[in-house]
């Protein structure tokens, strides 16, 4: 069976004259069943490019279509768009629109959709993609209008529910969005984009295991979602699954050989894995205090509200509770004084206090380095507002966001009181995360302490 799949990937483009919707369906199936066929497809594209160089007229347009479709599924979006522009037909224009959407060329994407619809591509699929363009342009009323006219698709179209879910996210309705994404994968278990969104939502909620499951489902579908590989790699690192993280980043390096970002992620993961190996080899016998700090919070009978709060804040041990403040806990949704008293009692039973590490610093936990008190220059009102700006508004990626949560960094003012070295001491915060922090601060005209 594997030989048949391998032969079909090549024969789809080289032994068949036509390239149509059936070709796309068979290609998607072959790549899903055997990811090794990506290499076969890359080789096939090289062969098709050689044939294109010798072709003209109708034959050349056919090769442009085939190379465009193959390039799209390889994740070579710009190459796909260049070839599909030189092809004819409904299929070419529909996939040209998909490529142009990825490249954020909205107006050209809409024109390609008009041509696809005029030339006979399935009207409902064109309309759903048009709704996506409108949504990304901020034309939410028109998006809602299109989806309203397509409500008959709700019984059988995963793409319809995916588009509704994305619209709900734009309008701040996260719970409703999650319901639509879940319905999307129920109707279409291979809907990569819906799996990706579910992965992000679970990650934000602190449901790491479910987030990993969703992102793993996402990356089995071609074309592989780049964001899913990055987010999945970071989650693997958070759970010390460094070999899996490295595999994600290596796939990104192969896909983007001239891009430095995946190489930075890969270097960080390799360094973290080597560090873990070294620590395991030289690991001392833990003292009694450290054993208490490492006690999982799941060992205690917690109320639903407390358990949900700790999951959202990624608090897994009693030691984590010594590195957050009571104010941070009280700021969590549905967490009040009753819940706080419950946690205080648990900590007191083990001789600890909430926020103790933040109060005592290195005397309590040598791994923790407290931020120095903020400087006290005379600041304008505008400067004060900038320093009070919440970190959440800077839209950091997963790794720096989690590191800042561990350090209790809530505002821009908190962040700039840390040095680069102090941030790099946090688990899974590497050079890539540091560069991201510096870039975000530079956009505000600020720097880390000591930079």
In short:
By secondary structure, the protein is mainly α. The chain has 27 helices and no strands.
Walkthrough of the structure:
- Helix content is 66%, strand content 0%.
- Among the domains are: 1-121, Serine Threonine Protein Phosphatase 5, Tetratricopeptide repeat (Alpha Horseshoe), CATH 1.25.40; 288-363, DNA polymerase, domain 1 (Orthogonal Bundle); 381-443, DNA polymerase, domain 1 (Orthogonal Bundle), CATH 1.10.150.20.
- It has helices at 2-14, 21-33, 37-53, 57-73, 77-84, 90-102, 106-118, 123-136, 140-149, 158-170, 174-187, 192-204, 208-218, 226-238, 242-255, 260-281, 288-293, 304-312, 318-321, 326-330, 337-349, 356-360, 381-387, 398-407, 412-415, 420-424, 431-443.
- The protein has 27 helices and no strands.
């Amino acid at each position: 069976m594997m030989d048949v799949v391998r032969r079909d990937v090549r024969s789809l483009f080289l032994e068949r004259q036509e390239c149509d919707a059936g070709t796309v369906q068979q290609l998607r199936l072959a790549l899903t069943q055997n990811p090794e066929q990506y290499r076969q497809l890359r080789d096939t594209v090289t062969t098709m490019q050689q044939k294109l160089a010798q072709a003209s007229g109708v034959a050349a347009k056919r090769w442009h279509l085939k190379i465009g479709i193959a390039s799209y599924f390889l994740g070579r979006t710009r190459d796909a768009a260049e070839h599909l522009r030189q092809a004819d037909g409904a299929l070419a224009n529909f996939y040209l629109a998909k490529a142009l959407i990825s490249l954020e060329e909205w107006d050209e994407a809409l024109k390609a959709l008009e041509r696809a619809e005029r030339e006979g591509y399935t009207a409902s699929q064109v309309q759903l993609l048009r709704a996506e363009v409108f949504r990304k342009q901020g034309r939410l009323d028109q998006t809602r209008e299109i989806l309203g006219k397509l409500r008959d698709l709700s019984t059988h179209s995963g793409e319809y529910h995916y588009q509704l879910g994305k619209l709900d996210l734009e309008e701040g309705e996260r719970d409703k969005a999650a319901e639509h994404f879940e319905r999307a994968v129920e109707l279409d278990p291979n809907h990569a984009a819906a799996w990706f969104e579910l992965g992000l939502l679970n990650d934000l909620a602190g449901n790491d295991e479910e987030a990993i499951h969703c992102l793993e489902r996402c990356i089995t579908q071609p074309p592989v979602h780049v964001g899913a590989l990055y987010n999945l790699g970071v989650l693997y690192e958070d759970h010390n699954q460094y070999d899996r993280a490295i595999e994600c980043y290596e796939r990104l390096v192969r896909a983007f050989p001239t891009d430095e970002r995946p190489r930075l992620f890969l270097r960080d993961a390799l360094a973290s894995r080597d560090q873990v190996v070294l620590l395991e080899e030289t690991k001392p016998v833990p003292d009694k205090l450290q054993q208490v700090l490492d006690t999982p919070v799941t060992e205690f009978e917690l109320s639903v509200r407390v358990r949900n709060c700790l999951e959202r804040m990624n608090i897994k041990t009693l030691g984590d509770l010594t590195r957050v403040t009571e104010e941070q806990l009280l700021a969590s949704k549905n967490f009040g004084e009753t819940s706080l008293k419950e946690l205080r009692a648990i900590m007191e039973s083990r001789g600890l206090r909430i926020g103790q590490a933040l109060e005592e610093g290195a005397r309590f936990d040598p791994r923790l380095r407290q931020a120095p008190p903020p400087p006290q220059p005379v600041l304008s009102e505008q400067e004060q507002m900038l320093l009070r700006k919440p970190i959440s508004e800077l839209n950091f990626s997963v790794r720096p966001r989690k590191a800042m949560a561990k350090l209790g960094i809530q505002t821009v003012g908190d962040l700039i009181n840390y040095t680069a070295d102090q941030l790099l001491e946090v688990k899974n915060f590497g050079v890539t995360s540091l560069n991201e922090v510096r870039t975000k601060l530079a956009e505000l005209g600020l720097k880390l302490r000591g930079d």
